[in-house]
Amino acid sequence: MADSPDCDLKSLSPLQLFERVTEQGEKVRALKAGKAPKDEIDAAVRMLLSLKLSYKTTTGQDYQAGLPPKDLVLINNGTAKEEDEDLVDPWNVQTSNAKGVDYDKLIVRFGSSKIDTDLINRIERAIGQKPHHFLRRGIFFSHRDMDQVLDAYENKKPFYLYTGRGPSSQAMHVGHLIPFMFTKWLQEVFDVPLVIQLTDDEKYLWKDMTIEKAYEYARENAKDIIACGFDINKTFIFSDLDYLGTSAGFYKNVVKVQKHVTFNQVKGIFGFTDSDCIGKISFPAIQAAPSFSSSFPQIFNGKENIQCLIPCAIDQDPYFRMTRDVAPRIGQPKPALLHSVFFPALQGAQTKMSASDPNSSIFLTDTPKQIKTKINKHAFSGGRDTIEEHRKYGGNCDVDVSFMYLTFFLEDDDRLQQLKQAYTSGELLTGELKKVLIETMQPLVAAHQERRKQVTDKIVKQFMTPRKLAFEF
Fold first, then answer.
1. Tens-digit pLDDT profile for residues 18-66
2. Is 198 helix (H, G, I), strand (E, B) or coil?
3. DSSP letters along 126-156, please?
4. Where is the WHEP-TRS domain (predicted)?
5. Which residues have CB under 8 Å from 422's CB, separation 6+?
6. Which CATH superfamily is domain 368-454 in?
């Protein structure tokens, strides 16, 4: 940001002003930490004070780090919502709250169930080991019919896992790893088959890319998924553009779903308009089909009554609410779901990351230097404007992106709690917390890159070849 406004501050919205103040506060802290010349620091502080004054004049509110203006109204499918209601659908996530989406309200809106202590304890008893830290920390926070899955498991009845990836870019970011890390754990502790759908057809329909490019991205993303460590004998990865044309069972289920969902229903669920291409309108049936075991006769020996468990981010839930509504009408069991929270962008938890913005996240192709630079420069801070204020009042872990990322990737519960206490008390400074995150992410990404190098085109082909897996049905 320049030391003088590059446009008339009066023309900025309250949220834009808030972002300008936040950015300038980060700049002041960086200059002080870097021991910049006094006149440069003084000029940056004057600009910060000027921006804060403009913010108060415009909004009538004092600027508070991590608390955006309260007058932001979000729109969902053309309908005005309450000020504090979040916009969440399969393509958009937006909230006015720097803490991120209000997941308790989302559970009520979507009609799912909270993953509570009782359910976590039941999972622990079923698998005979400590639950994944994603469960313990509420990263996977909501479910549909997980009790039924545990009933089946305890009664020696089979189930399988289904998750997916929309290949919108060649490089995945660390947020994309979350469902795959958790799915891998689920597969290992329950010892069940897994199918992974690559929706290259969806990306061709929604994005400005060729069908060849969508397919290429699918195969490149498959390498990153395989590098997570999935067992080739228990995992089938498929591209829609490939598999849909070769599996009669899959296509039959697509058509069954299509017959039982009206155009008005998909418009209501997904916000489609009369101007959307018919490919978009019919796509939800393709994402629904892997929920049914008969879509994979080579794996399940033609059996149709095997329940499916789907770990996914909660923005994908509309697809599966539709699927669960249709399932009984086509003689199929309803899929169960485990929902995760959204992985925040480096700039804050108010939106999802964009694969097209290289600074919105840490990508799996980033070098150690790039990771360090991104975190230091772009990770939204819950710290105070000055070291003195931070020491006195402490930082806000609820909005600090570095702490949020550590919640996902730092497995040591005691260490995470120590960091939270130290940052909240003001003992730990923002730069020091960012350093911990850098030291956590650099080896994690480097290890992933080494595993990915071992994934050849031949291995990808083996994972993506329809075949019997190491299970008897």
1. 778 877 877 888 788 778 888 888 888 888 888 888 887 777 777 776 5
2. strand
3. HHTSPPPHHHHTTSEEEEESHHHHHHHHHTT
4. 13-69
5. 428
6. Tyrosyl-Transfer RNA Synthetase (1.10.240.10)
